[in-house]
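[Discussion] Sanity-checking designs against the backbone

I'm trying to build intuition for which residues belong where. Below is a structure token string of 682 positions. I'd appreciate it if someone posts a full sequence so I can compare it with mine line by line.
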């Protein structure tokens, strides 16, 4: 065995040396052989100016990347979607001329696609990853796409580096592993050598990267956009989606187990919730900064690796989106929907965020590859609800049958129709920002602080959340094989938090950090999920029963139902159970077909007349849920079992003989989501 291991090690060393030899002394070039002088920054009009179309290197690199996979999306391949509608609370006429953000009487149809980023279409849904949150508004002025994530910042500052990020994050090309995971050498090597990623990595290692459900997940537009009103006055804006149910997450062990128990966990949750009428709701929030205040902050507001702390720039809640209809056909809708940050309406414009500037090119290019040509806008899910007219013709999958001989502008044969619309007629007019500067490949000095907001995030976390961050870094870097990469990450994150870096350095047997750490003391309480909304409704409770069910248990089930809590019965066999008061209940799961990780809480009713195997299986459910800090309830024989298991008198463990009071206390425990002050030492 030792000889085989040595042989495998020598072979890997030889392969590495061969790889190094092939590239040794070589210079980076375009596909035409032109040597490239800069591969970090796209070509811009001044350091903080817009990206230029003449940047052939960026376009070649991005075009190649966009066309690497056919037909599956390269990123965000694993997704699920639903239809909905958006209602405005108050007119935003002072800020934007966008019609759907002015008229409070309108209900604007929407279509939302949620997704993971790294995995393929067949990957599990509860992996540690950022989540896409893309919304298409079908407005009377055309389609508007708010293409965001559940994390408000991103790994990189310039779109030219996006192919590099995704190549590093995706399965390593020599063996196509690991799938849908960032716990491997190339990703962390990228992080260590592209330190602008520090802030995003903190979010990715936090509980935000393992959401409880799409219904309990925030959404962010990520980039800085502009709102422009009828007078031409502009405000910088960031968009937020705030889930009405609050922002909640899984714990890591639970998330891993769900990936095996139900890899469709998130889509099933969304589908079933809408199917039952428990419509997910999200409030739209705006952060607004007047143009004259652009430089009043200790960060660059155009930097996509930075957020605007809500305490500094409050979120103005302006409307609500309700998802109220499931798709009829996943392929025709979820897979064929085409989002693009450049799909805007009058009153919404762009900033010079260099990541956004690149996406404005990349998304069209990607749809050309995925959907076979330029007519993807004619697919039913992508068609605007308002009419559209232009001189574009032909192309793959053309559905419109145009009549007449004219297909150009200007013309006299068709009286110069369709003709451009003036601004007064609703024609889109770009915001007239003054732009000047030398053509450069460089980055503004104001973009070069990579650690302050990463520390801000750390400072804002509760103690349980900080422990989860330590555990996540320890897990991910524990999967990294290269000791140098591990050490580089330790050295990098000592700039964020000595406490954090020291914790995972010890776990992976790396040299502890020796620096001074960060002197940033600022925090933002809004970033901690400890401060989120906590509601019990739509939570799912697994109720463990035997063959004989006391009628008083019905009182508990009915009370939970009144609070909007969903209960599903679990036993050793499926079928109906009639309680002592004559009420009939359906057992939906057995110990084989269900798992505690698929429920938000466990209610143990139990039964005296069951086998020792039944009791053993029931207590396994309960103990696993207990280890994940979930609420546990026990009445009747279940109360006796909890006492024998020494689980009583722990936070979030509720018991009692008075069923009304028990149901009330159990509801409060469920509302808390997790009970982190519980000592788990089973």
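Best answer:
Here's mine. Compare freely.
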């Amino acid at each position: 065995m030792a000889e085989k291991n040595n042989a495998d090690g020598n072979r890997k060393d030889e392969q590495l040396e061969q790889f190094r030899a092939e590239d040794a002394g070589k210079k980076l070039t375009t596909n035409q052989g032109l040597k490239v002088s800069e591969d970090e920054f796209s070509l811009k009009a001044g350091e903080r100016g817009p990206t230029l179309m003449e940047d052939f290197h960026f376009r070649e690199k991005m075009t190649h990347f966009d066309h690497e996979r056919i037909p599956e999306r390269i990123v965000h391949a694993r997704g699920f979607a639903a239809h909905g509608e958006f209602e405005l609370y108050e007119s935003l006429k002072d800020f934007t001329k966008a019609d759907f953000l002015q008229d409070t009487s309108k209900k604007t149809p929407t279509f939302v696609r949620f997704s993971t980023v790294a995995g393929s279409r067949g990957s599990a849904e509860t992996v540690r990853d950022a989540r896409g949150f893309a919304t298409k508004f079908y407005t009377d002025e055309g389609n508007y796409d708010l293409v965001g994530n559940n994390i408000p910042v991103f790994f990189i500052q310039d779109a030219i580096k996006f192919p590099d990020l995704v190549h590093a994050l995706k399965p390593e090309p020599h063996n196509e592993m690991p799938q849908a995971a960032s716990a491997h050498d190339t990703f962390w090597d990228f992080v260590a050598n592209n330190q602008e990623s520090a802030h995003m990595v903190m979010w990715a290692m936090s509980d935000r990267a393992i959401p409880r459900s799409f219904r309990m997940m925030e959404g962010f537009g990520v980039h800085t956009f502009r709102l422009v009103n009828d007078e031409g006055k502009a405000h910088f804006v960031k968009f937020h989606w705030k889930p009405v149910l609050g922002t909640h997450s899984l714990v890591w062990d639970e998330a891993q187990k769900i990936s095996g128990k139900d890899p469709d966990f998130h889509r099933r949750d969304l589908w079933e919730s809408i199917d039952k009428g428990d419509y997910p709701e999200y409030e739209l929030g705006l952060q607004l900064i007047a143009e004259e205040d652009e430089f009043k902050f200790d960060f660059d507001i155009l930097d996509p690796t930075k957020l605007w702390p809500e305490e500094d720039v409050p979120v103005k809640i302006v409307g609500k989106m309700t998802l109220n209809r499931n798709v009829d056909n996943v392929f025709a809708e979820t897979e064929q929907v085409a989002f693009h940050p450049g799909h805007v309406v009058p009153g919404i414009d762009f900033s010079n965020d260099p990541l956004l500037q690149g996406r404005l090119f990349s998304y069209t290019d990607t749809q050309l590859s995925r959907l076979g040509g330029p007519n993807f806008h004619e697919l039913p899910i992508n068609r605007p609800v308002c009419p559209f007219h232009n001189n574009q013709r032909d192309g793959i999958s053309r559905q419109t049958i145009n009549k007449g001989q004219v297909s150009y502008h200007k013309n006299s044969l068709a009286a110069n129709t369709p003709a451009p619309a003036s601004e007064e007629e609703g024609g889109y007019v770009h915001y007239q920002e003054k732009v000047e500067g030398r053509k450069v490949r460089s980055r503004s000095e104001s973009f070069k602080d990579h650690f302050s907001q990463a520390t801000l995030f750390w400072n804002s976390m509760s103690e349980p959340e900080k422990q989860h961050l330590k555990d996540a870094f320890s897990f991910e870097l524990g999967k990294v094989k290269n000791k140098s990469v591990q050490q580089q990450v330790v050295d990098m994150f000592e700039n964020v938090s000595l406490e954090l870096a020291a914790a995972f350095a010890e776990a992976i047997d790396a040299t502890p950090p020796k620096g001074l750490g960060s002197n940033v003391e600022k925090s933002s309480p809004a970033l901690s999920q400890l401060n989120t909304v906590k509601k019990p409704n739509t939570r799912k409770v697994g109720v463990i029963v035997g063959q004989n069910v006391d009628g008083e248990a019905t009182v508990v089930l009915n009370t939970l139902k009144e609070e909007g809590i969903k209960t599903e019965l679990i036993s050793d066999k499926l079928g109906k159970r009639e309680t002592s008061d004559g009420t009939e209940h359906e057992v939906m799961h057995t110990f084989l077909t269900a798992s505690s990780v698929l429920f938000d809480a466990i209610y143990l009713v139990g039964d005296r007349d069951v086998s020792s195997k039944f009791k053993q299986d029931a207590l396994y459910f309960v103990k696993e849920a207990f280890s994940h800090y979930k609420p546990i309830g026990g009445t009747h024989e279940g109360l006796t079992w909890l006492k024998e298991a020494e689980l009583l008198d722990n936070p979030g463990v509720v018991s009692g003989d008075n069923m009304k009071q028990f149901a009330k206390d159990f509801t409060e425990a469920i509302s808390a989501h997790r009970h982190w002050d519980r000592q788990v030492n089973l």
